[in-house]
From TrEMBL:
Gene3D superfamilies hit by this protein: 3.40.630.30
Superkingdom field: Bacteria
Record organism: Pseudomonas aylmerensis
Protein's name in the database: GNAT family N-acetyltransferase
Coiled-coil region(s): none
Keywords of the record: Transferase
Length: 374
């Protein structure tokens, strides 16, 4: 007999059982404990668990928040929706129950290794039903599935059967690193980009320090975070200091922070997750006063590529932003889809119309190019 349950803390699910559903994941049980402990404002965490005869067979993280429909819109479209929100406060906001995580790279339903591949669609269906039932308990009409890989046809089929609509979400940047040196990587880029980067590298750069603990520089890190956040077109959540320290503490050697110094001033930081298979860029914060002079974004990029080369890491996962630069830097893009359904048929129909105008590829040509590539 298959049953499902929703929990308010991941500690209600055994660590080994959760990780068995996500083998090899960097964003594992410990990652979600650190996120939960960080107490990010405006989010309520939920954890969906499916049992077969009392044994855990599937899990998925979920969250509740007040969602702005223009979250993934940028450029001209964003300026229009911000004016609309000022004229009519709350018009673009809806209570949302979403499967996935605002701070994870992609959504998936973790399936226990004991479950045959043929039964995975059934497990996904039970996760969707559990989410709908849990959302009803909170009086929330809108249920979504955030950032499902476009190649995952089982998620797409299960969502379609459940009546969910779909639209493109932000694609994930992905750089394969088969190179023996940074110079070899530069040689793989187009001539103009290669020449530009080599010119940038000739100038003196900041000192780079790799850390697993940033407690002593936390005020400086948060200053850089707030400065970067104030300039971001796309930002779903506001991360507290405890997020950065908690990730480093909880994941130990699987999390690292690169600090960039000019003399005694911290001018940039980069929080990453890492194992022998991939380097995952979680957040890059930098001082706008020093960014142009020291080319901080590109120096950080090349530092990360060099780290992958030195540690024989084959993949650099570089997030869901900065598409124009990443296209120049040789990235591939992995497509993601957002699935959603509102239990109110009228609202659901309205959202079907709204999604035609608030798609993320409507207002950013570079993002549109990245999405079309996928």
């Amino acid at each position: 007999m298959i049953t499902a349950q929703a929990f308010s803390t991941i500690r209600a699910i055994q660590r080994s059982a959760w990780n068995d559903c996500f083998p090899g994941a960097l964003e594992d049980w410990d990652f979600y404990v650190a996120v939960e402990n960080a107490a990010i404002d405006d989010f309520k965490w939920r954890y969906l668990a499916v049992y077969d005869s009392g044994s855990l067979v599937a899990v998925a993280p979920a969250f509740i928040t007040q969602y702005r429909l223009d979250t993934t819109v940028s450029g001209t479209g964003k300026r229009f929706t911000e004016r609309l929100e000022r004229l009519w406060p709350g018009v673009l906001q809806l209570p949302l129950y979403a499967i996935g995580s605002p701070v994870a790279e992609r959504c998936d339903a973790g399936i226990a290794s004991s479950v045959p591949e043929a039964r995975r669609p059934l497990m996904i269906t039970h996760v969707l039903k559990a989410a709908r039932q849990d959302a009803n308990e909170f009086g929330i009409g809108l249920v979504a599935v955030k950032d499902v890989p476009t190649h995952d046809t089982q998620w797409a089929a299960s969502c379609r059967v459940a009546g969910f609509q779909s639209m493109p979400s932000l694609p994930s940047g992905w750089l394969t690193v088969p190179y023996g040196s940074v110079d070899a990587y530069l040689g793989s880029l187009c001539k103009s980009t290669r020449k530009d980067l080599r010119r940038k590298l000739r100038a003196p750069g900041p000192r780079v320090e790799w850390r697993h603990n940033i407690d002593d520089v936390l005020p400086q890190v948060m200053r850089l975070y707030e400065d970067t956040l104030s300039r971001a077109d796309l930002q779903f959540e506001r991360l507290p200091a405890s997020y950065f320290t908690g990730i480093l503490e909880r994941l130990e050697k699987r999390a690292v922070c690169a600090l960039y110094w000019v003399d005694e001033r911290l001018v940039a930081f980069n929080l990453m997750l890492v194992d022998q298979h991939r380097l995952v860029d979680k957040f890059f914060g930098h001082d706008r006063e020093f960014s142009r002079e020291y080319n901080l974004y590109f120096r950080c990029w090349l530092t990360n590529v060099d780290y992958c080369i030195q540690h024989n890491i084959p993949v650099y996962e570089c997030g869901q932003e900065g598409y124009a630069s990443k296209l120049r830097l040789g990235c591939e893009f992995r497509g993601n889809n957002l699935f959603f359904r509102h239990r109110n048929r009228l609202v659901n129909g309205l959202l079907k119309l709204v999604k035609m105008y608030l798609r993320p590829d409507r207002s950013d040509p570079a993002m549109a190019a990245a999405i079309s590539e996928t």
